[in-house]
Amino acid sequence: MTENTDAIIVEKVKKGDKEAYRHLVMRYQQKLFQTCIGFLQNETDAEDLTQEIFIKAYQKIESFRFQAAFSTWLYRISVNTCVNFLRKQKVKRLLFLDSGNQSKESFGVSEPADSATEREEQRRMLRTALKELTLMQRKVFILSQYRELSNKETAEILEITEKAVESLLFRARVKMQKVIKEKMNSNIAPTGRYQQHRAEPYG
Amino acid sequence: MNCVEFEIQLAKLKSGANPGVEFLEHKSQCPKCMELASRADELYHFIADDAKKTVSPFLSTRIMAELDKKALEVHISIQKAWQIAAVSLALIAGFNLALFMDYRQSPTDADSVLSEYFFAGNAGMEIENNWLKLSTDEE
Ligand SMILES: [Zn+2]
User: Fold this and answer.
1) Where are the bilayer-spanning segments (chain B) (predicted)?
2) DSSP labels for chain A?
3) Ligand 1 mean position, distance from CA B79 (Å)
4) Which of A143-152, B32-41, B92-101 comes out lowest in average pLDDT?
5) Could you say which of A39, B44, B88, B108 is the most buried, measured as most Cβ atoms within 10 Å of its Cβ?
């Protein structure tokens, strides 16, 4: 049903009805935002990138030939844009243009101190774990965990087989557990659950 | 079930799925695996919470405004391109017209004398010499 209405709206947009595009934005902005959060681990950047993705998709809409669902096409653009963004960030850090300290980003509205520290610790661990993943494992993990897409949907977006998605997801989760185990072994401080670690840049 | 098998099973486990008796037994007997499972669960809950974050209600307005801005920029650049093209065409047309008119126009006496002066050896020199002579004589 959604695919059909998407197709109708896309046709309208292709014919120059820019206002029709608003419906697609409203329909997919939350989903793309979640995907971006997964990749970037930063709410502000995720929102900016969501905007960039929609603008890119609008500019490219003429090239959309209905060979896949519009949502699949949009997710492909999102994944590529996020990966490119992370690459650029990495280059920036290498060139010492950016400190890369993302620990104090705009995640979470004012939380109690303990809860905020715990979340920060979780965030740090998640970033470390994501860094351990290969690019393909990361893509699969984020689409599956942040978007809760099925293996079939993820396979379509990444243009790989469902079996490959299953395998990549398994390996990603094994790596996540490895990072958790490392933290368990090294971070038990005498005064608390975790020692405080310096935030590592993610990307 | 040993710890390695437990970890493999944990990595395969889908949220809400039944892990099986062996898994649960090992978990209750092995403190390390129990902690691992608990922390993995915490991490996946953290991700789920993260994914629940809602986008700003103004994002769609921002996107549409940005599209309008871009469309305007394109419109202006197209307009500018047309203006440049029109001016260039006018210049080329003007230049060609000038050449054409120049070609069509019959040469004046002055032009004839000038071209004769420049291209025909010492033609006209006689006039000049006579004039020079006259002016000398007058002195
Ligand atoms: Zn065990």
Assistant:
1) 81-100
2) -HHHHHHHHHHHHHTT-GGGHHHHHHHHHHHHHHHHHHHH--HHHHHHHHHHHHHHHHHHGGG--SSS-HHHHHHHHHHHHHHHHHHHHHHHHHTTS-----TTSS-SSS--HHHHHHHHHHHHHHHHHHHHS-HHHHHHHHHHHTS---HHHHHHHHTS-HHHHHHHHHHHHHHHHHHHHHHHHH---SSSSS---PPPP--
3) 71
4) B92-101
5) A39
Query: Which residues in A lie closer than 8 A to residue B7 (C-beta atoms)?
Result: 174, 177
Interface test with A, best of B35, B50, B68, B74 (most A CBs within 10 A): B50
Query: So what's the ipTM on this one?
Result: 0.80
Q: What is the pLDDT of residues A49-90, one digit of tens each?
A: 999 999 999 999 999 999 899 999 999 999 999 999 999 988
Output the pTM of the full model: 0.73
Cβ within 8 Å, pair B60-A170:
no
Q: Are B41 and B15 in contact (CB under 8 A)?
A: no
